[in-house]
Structures are given as structure tokens and as C-alpha cells.
Amino acid sequence: MDSMKPSKNKLARTLAKVLHFRTGIAPVDSGIEKVGIEIKKKGDKDDRNDEEEEGEESLAMEAFLAKLFASISCVKCCYAQLQFCQSPYDVDGIQMADRMVVSELKNLSELKRCYLKKQFEDDPSPRTSLVLAEIQEQKSLLKTYEITAKKLENQARLKDSEAIFLREKLDEVNKQNKEFEKKLNQSGQVLSVLDNLHFSGLNPSHFIAVLRHSVRSIRSFVRVMIEEMKTANWDFNAAAYAIQPEIVYWREEHKVFAFESFVSREMFDGFCYPNFVLSKEQCLTSTTRQKERFFSRFTEVKSSKTKEFLCKKPKSSFANFCRLKYLKLIHPKMEVSFFGDQRFRNLIQNNNGEFPMFDSSTFLASFFEMAKRVWLLHCLAFSFEPQASIFQVKKGCRFSEVYMESIAEEVFPLSQNDMSFCSSQESDSNVAFTVIPGFKIGKTLIQSKVYLSQILH
């Protein structure tokens, strides 16, 4: 029985020959060859199926990503449309853009759900979906560019309108500057007469010339003060209404008159006293000698530079006047807000009579120039016989062209509508507040500059 069974080694050698074809001899059993060929064909087919499946999955993912980017581009486009409809405000356009944004966000949410559940692989035609998504993305981008172009066109038109407005404003300012230069030249001609002025030749025109320069210096100081306030982040409107409450201004820029009224009120306070304060000099008889002394003060201060005069005579009447008005006009909190400390106040209060070096400070230089002009006007007022007197118009008084002048029409010409309104209500116009007081020299009356309130019915 042992001879009837082939040995194991022989069987192994036979199989090796069949499977590996090492000797080139045809296999004894052709059935084994058929099995091998079928196995090989089946393996090739499986490989091809795997590659096709991987390609379809990759294409499906590309189509899904294309849909995702197309939807995101559409959201950006809708948001751009939403912004565009904000200015000018378009209710229908905003509502439509809002609905489109919501719709695309829902679409994005659906894509997220499909991705998590692997449902994006069920797309029957991923190639078509890919192309359509790319087309949709390009349309959204094109629409976004169109909206951006329209927005830029609107901004350009707005800038053109602003440029036209600013040109008109510039022309108006240039026209006003020419008028101011004309007035300045006229007043300068009168002021030049003061260089050779003698006590015996005094007349009201000289006082009017100095008053004009005093008013101009007050306005200049107010402009500098307002700039300091803006730098220190002050609430300009709140400050204006704190000075003159419950005032209805004709125009927004008229609020500057509130600050001018405040500065003017403080600077002219005590103007009727010889040194702006009640002193022994007030009891002196108003003699020609006393008037000559005031005229001498006028000539001395007028012909000197402010800084040099204060340094040379720190205890003079003019120096004391500067100290008095600075400490009264400039509040300590204002000084700290503008300069960070009170060093100028401390110097002015110094018993040694020192004054701060105001050449380096526009604010101080403007203040001392204003103080000089008001002091000169005061000295000139006491040089007249009889001396010039000052008067203030109370709030609520009925407007009178004899005693008053509307400062708004002088500095900021009113519009045609405002002028028509003022003309129709002239007899009923009331004084809101006095900006610059009025003066009287003998029989000559210099009108007070007032701001008229609007009459609300």
C-alpha cells in the first residue's frame, strides 16, 4: 500500500512546476492552468473596479467642494448687495438681499448635513454638478464686482458733489476775506492816524478804530480757545449751552457767539472803573490832568510790545489788569485741560511779578494781545470829556436798530429764508444775548452787537 501513494516531496515538486513554469514543460493537469487564468482575470477586474470607485468618489468630492465654494461666493454677493442697498436706503432691495442671504445660509447648512452623512457620494452626475457649481461661482463673483463698481461710482459722485460744495464754500470765504481786508485797510488807515495823535485832537472816530481792533482780537482769541477745546476733546455744544442756555441758533456755526459773549463779558467787566476795579482813583475828580494821564498810558502801551512792557513794568496798571483778567477768564480746570498743569497761573500769581514766556504759546500770545487792545480802549475811553460810557443789552429786550446791531448778519450773512423771516418779524425780534457791549461818547452812540433769538410760534 505504501507503493501506491506518491511521496509528499514529489507532489510538492510537481505543483511548483505547474504554478511557476520553471522548466517550460506543459503541466500535466490543464485544469489547474484554467483555474490560475480565471483567478488572474478576476483580480484584474477587481482592480479596475476599485480604481473606478476611487475616481467616482474623488469626482463626487470635487463636485461637493465646488458647490460649497459657489454657495459661499453667493453669500458674499448677497451681503454686498445688502450693504449697497443701505445707502441710499432701499427697503425692497434690503429685504430681497436679506432673503437671499438666508436662503444661501440654509443651502450651506444642507451641504454640511450631506457631508456628515456621506450623502454627497449619491450624486448621479457629479461632472455636471461640478460644471454648474463653477458657473454659479463665477456668476456670483461677477455680480459682486458689478455691485462694487456701482458702489465706487456712487462714492465718486458723492466726492464730486463735496468738491463742488467746498469750491463754493472757498469762493464764499475768499469773498469774505476780501471784505475783511477792505475793512482792515479802512480801519488801518484810521489807526495810522493814532500814531501822530495828540490829546487835543481826540474824537470818536479814534475810539471806534481801537474798538474794531479790540473786537477783532477777542474773536481771534476765541478761535484759539475753541481749537484748544477741540484738542482737549471738550464737548463744544455742551460748553456753548452752558454759557448761553436755552438759545435756538439760526445756524450751527453761530454757537461761536456764545464764547465771544463770555470772553467779552469778562474782559469788559469793570470797564467803567479807572483800573477795572473800584479803587481810590474812582474818587478823584475828573480833571483834564487825570484824562491826560490816561491818554499818556494809552500812548505808552500802544507804542510798546506787550512782552517787553510787562517784563519792564510787571507792577504797572496794565500788568495788574492782565493778571486780573487771566485769573478771572481762564478757569484752573480749563488751564489744566489745555496745558496739563497750572504753571502759567502760578507764574502770573507770583509775587515777583513774573509773566510766562507767552511767545511759545499761541493761546497766551492771543490772550495778552487781546488784553492790550481792551486796555488801550479803556485808557482812550477815560481820555474823553465826558468819558466814554459802556452799556449792555439785557436778554429778552426788543431789538432796536438805534442801540443794537445783529452780529449774525455781520459775521455770517443769513440765508435768503432767514433774512425774509427776520424782515417779517423785525418788530418782534428779541435779544438772545449781548456779544459786544455798546458805547456812548458824548452824542456819539456805538451800537451794541447782539445775537437775536428765533421766535418760535
Automatic annotation (TrEMBL):
> InterPro entries per the record?
DUF641_pln, GIL1-like, GIL1_IRKI_C
* Ranges that cross the membrane: none
Key words of the record: Coiled coil
Coiled coil (UniProt feature): 135-190
According to its UniProt entry, one GO biological process term is: negative gravitropism
Give the highest taxon in the source lineage.
Answer: Eukaryota
Sequence ranges assigned to domain GIL1/IRKI C-terminal in this UniProt record: 390-451
Q: Is Coiled coil a UniProt keyword of this protein?
A: yes
Keyword Electron transport in annotation: no
Q: Residue limits of the DUF641 domain?
A: 58-183
Question: What is the protein name given in its UniProt record?
Answer: DUF641 domain-containing protein
Q: Which organism is it from?
A: Cannabis sativa (Hemp)
